[in-house]
Amino acid sequence: MSLVLRCARLFVALMAGCVSFLCSAQGNSSSADEDTRKIISELQTALIAQNYQAAFDKANSGVDEFAGDPSFDFLYAQAALEVAKYDEAIFALERVLVNWPDHVPSHYLLGLTYAKQKNYSQAQTILQGLRSAQLTKAMRQNVDRALASIEERSNQLEESYKHAISLALGHDSNVNSGALDDRIVIGGIPFLLDATSQKTADNFMRFRYNFRAKWQQTQYDAWKLDVDYSDQRHQDTDDYDRYQGTIRVGYEHKKDKAAFSVGGQFGVLTLDDNTYQQDFGLYGSVQYYFSGNWFTAFSGFVFLQNNVQDRNLDSRIYTIQGGLGHSSKLWLVRLDAGYTWQPARYDEGEHYGRDYDFISGSVAHRTSQNSLLTFKAQYRDIEHRAVHPFFLETRNEELVILNLNWRYQWDDAWSVDVSASYYDKHSSITLYSYDRTEWFTGVRYEF
């Protein structure tokens, strides 16, 4: 429990006493009635007994009738803070301060509420303003402690950095399937069956490094940086050794049930020590929790892909997708559907251009406190944009991708991963059909 919330709970009894003062003031008013006194008494009893959810439910059910009464609003704010209903607490405290602008406990509780919202600048302003007020020794000590806690948390919130390195050993049943998929072409004419285009199985070792940084601007806004690098080496087919790097920079806004992000990405793929492909572009996404644990999400991507080895593979990629999901403590289930346009940049490569519909689903289940099991599946219906110059027909393809992953977390730093993937592609031009199975196991260290 944070120091800020402990401060709030230590003063529940004190604040309840302050409410008694407010009640007395209200009792002198001709507008006071038995219903108001009854609900205030019930809220005081529930708060002192630390039955916070019951107190909030009771106050929330009577807010239309009793809002505006400072005694009720003050108790409502206490209950709302305890059950993390911060906006409701702020509105209630502002109503109290309209009637009692010098009420110290309300200012104090308002500062704590802003701190729980991570609006540290506003919290500091309110609590520092209390230092010039007439405070008891105990209240002054708690204001000082709250300010110290807020300053510490503000410093932590401003920036955070996280590194992760992993090493995995695995097996690929079709290392060079990319050659048949026409995204990766190494040597010779891509539609001729030679030694480089035959199905080849091989073992591999993969090293990966990931760096994530976050710079929080306000309680809602942050800038993010994600750098990912992987180095995959094969036992026999070293022509397919690959280095891949991605840099992603973005802005994120989160408030209440909604989240919005936008940014840019740059990536490089190197095969056999030679740069093969570069891509860069923009992305954006929106997520909204509309009912309890249910959420919906929409995203879009615009990328330019530059193939250094064959300019006919240069393309532009436009993707839109939407999804529906359910999140709980142990489960995360999500279903997405979308469409991708991928026209070639040059007319002579238009037969490589393609558009496809896709649907994907994922299920993540926390099987224990330290382990997470994830399953993902995707189906793509692919249509190419022009007749193939050699086979004299337009390619139509279907691709199925399945992935199963299990991660066991030894402690905060070390974890082990076991993963298996399966790819099955059927093409109207048989040469471009393939199946592929990949599995690996490895360790991961985060710091």
TrEMBL record:
SUPFAM superfamilies: Porins (SSF56935), TPR-like (SSF48452). Residues 1-25 form the signal peptide. It comes from the Bacteria. Keywords: Signal. Transmembrane segments: none annotated. The keyword Transmembrane helix does not apply. This is DUF560 domain-containing protein.
